[in-house]
Design goal:
Blueprint (H helix, E strand, L loop, with lengths): L7 E13 L6 E18 L3 E6 L5 H14 L4 E8 L9 H21 L6 H15 L7 H9 L2 E5 L4 E6 L5 E6 L11 H6 L1 H12 L3 H16 L4 H8 L4 E4 L6 E5 L4 H8 L5 E6 L6 E2 L1
Parallel strand pairs: 3-4
Antiparallel strand pairs: 1-2, 1-11, 2-4, 2-5, 5-6, 7-9, 7-10, 8-9
GO cellular component, one term: cytoplasm
Family: Belongs to the GHMP kinase family. Archaeal shikimate kinase subfamily.
Keywords: Amino-acid biosynthesis, Aromatic amino acid biosynthesis, ATP-binding, Cytoplasm, Kinase, Nucleotide-binding, Transferase
Length: 291
């Protein structure tokens, strides 16, 4: 508190869409999308009070806040609220975006108020991932999703080693999302079935390393859709309508398509034939930011 004024810190963090799902092999890739979780943190006398809009479980937020306080060696109360236009449990990294936003907001607040040690970007990401694992919202730690959300653009990662193989900007294409409005929690997905497709996911990963991003995304999408029982017609309908690439994001249920401007209406029309909603967004190259 300075002069009786309570400092607030606000952070905006994008969701991400999948190029390669890391569950089968431990290596993954994702890119930022312009759908966001915004977190605001301020100091209160005691306790950690969390609220969300729309309403979701606040366990992840609470763990993120506690981990930052523990790391910085500070005891204080916090009030944290989040707002989001990212569909929850839909494969679009709502958990990674939330953990990044809350972790960075609390860190920025506490480090300024209490003049603590300085953490770098990777420290923040590590804290956010550890929080997601503790909250049980991820299988691998989602290092690919977390880094794509934090840095924006495209990241390629070794999730098991928590190493970034590549990060950089991605062509700012339109992204069409088909969300069946059925929740699919990553931690409940069938890991055994996904491990069966690992030799073919490796092929998709090699395509990605050869800079064939769209080919890798589509192949990954077909493989994981088949393993998890999702309808692959959704992918082929998007490709038939002119999408550059289409696939399953995360463990579903959302599908994504990367599309040139002149083909957007065609892909939207194709996916409007399915029950649920179609969302139009774009690639995000900015990443997580204090606002």
């Amino acid at each position: 508190m300075f002069g009786g004024i309570s400092i607030k810190k606000k952070v905006k963090s994008p969701g991400s869409a999948t190029v390669i799902n890391a569950i089968a092999t431990g290596k993954g890739s994702a890119f930022g999308i312009k759908l966001y979780v915004t977190a605001e943190a301020k100091i209160i006398n005691s306790g950690i009070k969390c609220s969300t809009k729309p309403k979701v479980d606040t366990k992840l937020m609470e763990i993120c806040a506690k981990k930052v306080l523990e790391r910085l060696g500070v005891k204080t109360g916090l009030k944290i609220k989040t707002e989001s236009n990212l569909p929850v449990a839909s494969g679009l990294s709502s958990s990674s975006a939330a953990s990044n936003a809350v972790t960075l907001a609390v860190y920025e607040l506490i480090s300024e108020e209490f003049d603590t040690e300085k953490l770098d970007d990777m420290d923040i990401i590590e804290l956010a991932i550890d929080s997601s694992l503790e909250a049980g919202v991820t299988i691998t730690g989602a290092f690919d999703d977390a880094t794509a959300s934090f840095f924006g653009g495209l990241t390629i990662t070794d999730n098991l080693r928590r190493e970034i193989i590549y990060k950089g900007k991605m062509d700012e294409k339109k992204v069409v999302i088909y969300n069946p409005k059925k929740k699919s929690f990553t931690a409940e997905a069938d890991v055994k079935r996904m491990k069966l497709i690992s030799p073919w996911v490796d092929i998709a990963f090699k395509e990605l390393l050869n800079k064939n991003i769209y080919k890798a995304l589509t192949l990954n999408g077909i493989l994981y859709s088949s393993a998890l029982g999702f309808n692959t017609d959704i992918i082929f309908d998007a490709l038939d309508a002119g999408a550059l690439a289409s696939g399953l994001s995360g463990t579903g249920p959302s599908f994504i398509a990367i599309v040139d401007n002149d083909k957007v209406d065609n892909v939207v029309d194709a996916w409007n034939s399915y029950p649920g909603e179609v969302i139009l967004t774009e690639v995000d190259n900015e990443g997580t930011k204090v606002i």
